[in-house]
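Appendix B. Chain record.
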Amino acid sequence: MKVIFVILLLLSYGLTSHAQNLERGKEINGTCAGCHGEFGQGGKKGEYPRIAGQRVGHLVEQLLAFRLRSRMNLPMFPYTQERELSDADIQDVSAYLASVELPTKWPEFKTDDDALTRLTAMEKVMIIPRAPGNLENGGHIYQQDCALCHAPDGLGKRKFPRLVGQYSSYLKKQMDAFVAGERPHDEEGKVGVLNKLKEQDLQDLLAYLTLIQSGPQ
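Structure tokens predicted for this chain:
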């Protein structure tokens, strides 16, 4: 089953000749915004994850996984069917969302900035509350076990998702799903790198990720 999924994924993702249309992606995001917010910032304290600034490869992979039901998500399934979202649409909306920057510091305004400019800039700021935990332990685990795929700064690489700036509640929910084998991690089978960690280690990881969220955007 995994081999079939990979083949289908590669066929769908291999649309390198498609010129990404960010304006079309922004238009498609109007549907996504109902849950994930106008700027892809997510909502309901992490029930809907942040997708702005996420890796293009990861967004494409997950949308295809929802379509193929290799990642089960009943609300996402109908939206990702080809009649609703073509392969080109998936690339366009993924590219658009990846281009959206959500700063982690309050903006500095010019004296002639109008109220709408100020309000829009303020709405885009996304600062995840600091999670409690042992920062030293969390940093050690992250740099040892996670940084190779998710990058030392937590911004992700290729198809591996950005973690920094994501809702801690959402990350914890996904960690629990990986540990329980309900969602496949990158490893073969149901046992992966997270399974060797204690519950406190997972909390320490979350604490570390909220510490480094103010890094480069």
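Further analysis of this model is presented in Appendix C.
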